[in-house]
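Sequence in, structure out.
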Amino acid sequence: MICTQCGKETRRLYPGDICQGCYRYFRDGGTINKPPAPGVIAYDSRGFVVCHICGRAFKRLGSHARESHGMTISEYKEMFGLCECSKTTEPNYSGHMRNLAYINGMPERLIKTGASTRIRNGDKTHRLGKKARLQECLDKRNRGKK
């Protein structure tokens, strides 16, 4: 059976002869938008990022690109002329995930996990062959000026 919206083959069709993914998308208020121009990130009325290929809007465009269009977010950005650092998530998504990380104790776990790998001041054995840190270079430069 083929979905009438996305053209994917599916085992079960929902009302309107659509697959489960399309059913959930439209049930939750999704619409088909005009795909944005290359190099531009557009948002729909809900604040979700609009896909340049199909015109649907999602909280996380990377997941949609991988699952629906078979490409990584890097390939997607390159194809549509987006900067590598451009956000492809809903504007509030990063803040929400940051808050969840703090609630679940991420800072404490990072400090505990990294304790054994941290280089202490004056430790020469772990730094052999590695470039000096900027702060150390500045400290050496400032010592001579005193």
